[in-house]
Amino acid sequence: MGRLSSPNFSAKHHSTQRSLRNNVVVTLAAIVATAVCATFWFRYIGLSEAPSAIHFYARVTRPRGICLGVRGDAPSYAGYIGLQGDTPDSHRRSFFWLFEAEENASDAPLILTVGGGPGTTGLLKPLGGQGPCILTPNGTVPNPDRITQRFNLLALDHPIGTGFSYGRMVNNSHDAALDVHDFLQKFYLLFPRLAKNQLIISGGSYGGKYLPNIATVIQEKNEAIVLQQSKRAIHIDLESLMISNPSSDPIAHYRWLLFFRCELHSLYDAATCAAMYAKLPECLDLISISLQDTGFSQSANKARRTAREFCYYIAWGGDTHGVIVEDIRRTCNETDTLRCFPHFEWIERYLRDSATMRSLGVPPFFNFTALSDTVEQAFFATGDVMLPAHLLYEPLLSKGIRVLHYIGAQDGNCAWPGILSFLKALRTPFQREFMRASDVPWPTSDYVATTVRAVGEGAGNMTYILIDGAGHFPSQDQPELVKKITERWISNSPWV
Ligand SMILES: *[C@@H]1O[C@H](CO)[C@@H](O)[C@H](O)[C@H]1NC(C)=O
Ligand SMILES: *[C@@H]1O[C@H](CO)[C@@H](O)[C@H](O)[C@H]1NC(C)=O
Ligand SMILES: *[C@@H]1O[C@H](CO)[C@@H](O)[C@H](O)[C@H]1NC(C)=O
Ligand SMILES: *[C@@H]1O[C@H](CO)[C@@H](O)[C@H](O)[C@H]1NC(C)=O
Ligand SMILES: *[C@@H]1O[C@H](CO)[C@@H](O)[C@H](O)[C@H]1NC(C)=O
Ligand SMILES: *[C@@H]1O[C@H](CO)[C@@H](O)[C@H](O)[C@H]1NC(C)=O
């Protein structure tokens, strides 16, 4: 049974008032306990505004025994938060799983992690190398390389429709980012002791679209608080972003893709490379044309879809003779390449288990999928993938948000040359230095092939790490190294 440790959890609510801004009061309006799980309803009122009540649905459980770590049952909380528009009849509910830091949980930075896709569960990194336990074909085992030793790790199934999150969906990264801000506001009401802690947001792949949008919305909402335009919101202490193998800039992505696949490596034979090079100029033109209107009108959506569909052949149309695009060191004959990454299968087996689901407080009707087709299709319909999300880094970097890219060099999907290319082109205070900086080996001779290019004090404001021994999923391929990178980045101390 999914259970809430009621005494413990209600005690936390009493401290809610202390840590909120002065002009906000939280009152527990009602507690509705069902036979299965406790369900909390909250009401919060901005005193200096006309009293307007906001209720939201929250359901939190304390999972037991399903993710045993090196130190035994790792303390964690899982459950749902109802987002804007959620009503008892029409749901919009985000699933989260918070793993507490082993050391100094109440002061330790909070790492929010989301999946890629669009539509991939946010639990992949936590259960695939970063959390207290790690997936095997037969469930989980303790994870010696967990980043939860020093950091609170908050996994979010983002956007709605992904993993265990359910209800009315959005269809682009900007609307999805508004949902994350709403989620965090409510999350901090449930866990007020974490609201003062540094926040780091982590993601990869399609996270290259999600993260700059999420950070931008947080930054804008924080600025609105300073300008007193929003009295009710909680200021979010966003410190930095950590991004692995992103899809961010569609132009740089395609401009460099064949260089990686045909020149640096032999992913395709000569005939395929020639056929693809012949399509490249028109692909780049169609993307450029679609960029003339970055709104969501029908014609703008259509221009992006047209570009995406035309360029699709270059991305996925060639025969690789069994080589996995996301990790060119490996071969695999599955038609569904996701199946070449057993973590997807393991995570589905684990999260479809009825005991695991009960422990996480998930409704029994769920049949968990690691990648949601419906979310993917909804995002494809707006051509979100063709939007220039990378440009959002320019104001963020200029305003002091630090940005780390750590890239698996064996990934032919989000290949490193296109990523380094858009990073160089970003117009920020760091541009000149970033272009001139050298790639320095790090951390030891065990990792000779890992290099760091950092600009700015400490671990850098703008930092790029290339990991030779990793593909599209660096935290699965090199968990120990990624833990070292995470600790160094967040402590913001120089690499060498
Ligand atoms: C925990 O925090 C305290 C007070 O900030 C500090 O003295 C101590 O070194 C920290 N412990 C660890 C293991 O980080
Ligand atoms: C998983 O369980 C099966 C059946 O009990 C066993 O044969 C297999 O060795 C186990 N695999 C691992 C990696 O523990
Ligand atoms: C893929 O299929 C080929 C034959 O079609 C076989 O020789 C090869 O071993 C297979 N590779 C894997 C990884 O299963
Ligand atoms: C969940 O979905 C998978 C694949 O679609 C299917 O094989 C499985 O039987 C389903 N499980 C339940 C309980 O419906
Ligand atoms: C995206 O979602 C909005 C809001 O639900 C909807 O009005 C719009 O039609 C959707 N766009 C597409 C292309 O499906
Ligand atoms: C760079 O990061 C540091 C923190 O290490 C911060 O204090 C500084 O403001 C940032 N620089 C710029 C130009 O934003």
From TrEMBL:
Q: Does the keyword Transmembrane helix apply?
A: yes
List the GO molecular function terms.
serine-type carboxypeptidase activity
Q: Which residues cross the membrane?
A: 20-42
Q: Which GO terms describe its biological process?
A: proteolysis
Known InterPro entries for this protein?
Answer: AB_hydrolase_fold, Peptidase_S10
Keyword Disulfide bond part of the UniProt annotation: no
Question: What EC number(s) would the UniProt record show?
Answer: 3.4.16.5
SUPFAM superfamilies recorded: alpha/beta-Hydrolases
Q: What is any Pfam family matched here?
A: Peptidase_S10
UniProt cross-references to Gene3D superfamilies, sorted A to Z: 1.10.287.410, alpha/beta hydrolase (3.40.50.1820)
Q: Which UniProt keywords apply?
A: Carboxypeptidase, Glycoprotein, Hydrolase, Membrane, Protease, Transmembrane, Transmembrane helix
Similarity field: Belongs to the peptidase S10 family.
The name this protein carries in UniProt is carboxypeptidase C
> What organism is recorded for this protein?
Mycena maculata
